[in-house]
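Example record for the data management plan.
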Amino acid sequence: MPSNLHVLVVDDSAVVRQTIQAILKTQPDITTSAAADPFIAMDKMKKDRPDVIILDLEMPRMDGLTFLRKLMKEDPLPVIVCSGHVGDASREAVRALEAGAVELIAKPNLGVQSFLTDSAVILVDAVRAASEYRLPVRRNAGIVPTRPPAIGRRAPRVIALGASTGGTEAIREILEPLPVSTCGIVIVQHMPAPFTRSFANRLNELCAIEVKEAEAGDEIHPGRALVAPGNRHMTVHTHGPRMFVELHDAPLVSRHRPSVDVLFRSVAESFGADAIGVLLTGMGADGAAGLLDMRTARATTIAQDESTSAVFGMPREAIRKGAVEAVLPLPQIASALLRMMQG
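Corresponding structural encoding:
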């Protein structure tokens, strides 16, 4: 991470620009500048190249998605998309992740004081995570991955995935090859509430398995992946043969809601050795303690390796805690899961 971070805020709303800058200026190592549209931004970037860009998608003269694609082609930089959350805006924000954006944050709700508490934490953390993001992140494209090591003791009843910065594409890469016979999957991806449904819907279009944003009481069953909704913790439970999820409005855990730690701890309690935990790319430590709980309960635990992680923070912390049974490059994780499901 640079010792001093310079953030360029690109948004046609003066109020949004001022709000974001005011929050970031509370951090002594962050400086900011602002532009009302991508053309002004490009002029400013020629004079002072930023470390991170916060980008609106709906702007005059050039929309944010067009600017993002141009930037990724000509001069890649870490870009955080700051978007509206209804209809096409939410879907376009998820498309921006596929185009190379590293994070999504919701437009500030200027009438709600709570934006200056929980959401301010999320904004600052997103900027710091983006500053550590590796560009370009490529996962041995075109190379056939080596056979993953033999891990796991028996076929799992559930797979739990946790991820943050860079995780949307990592999750897609894991889920796309999985067949409908795959055991139930539960997922926490750090993402604001407006976007998790669009993210799940997009995965559902791309994958053979069903992917949906979780609702309280949703059943966990083979061929289905449930994504925790933004701003809600998700836990798993069993009642006889029934396996299901519950959602909770509770304080941030490990600086996040939903929290990977919350999900993994509930998996450890409900499934023990009949589970697999996979901790993917992301900044911070969320998921490390929960993965240790899973390993203590004799679940199989996997962390994404440094070479394929956009940000290695979360996997690194899990490895340091002794929570990880196997460290695998991303292209090997899906095949390892398939082998373990075969017992």
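Summary line stored alongside the record: The longest helix spans residues 118-132.
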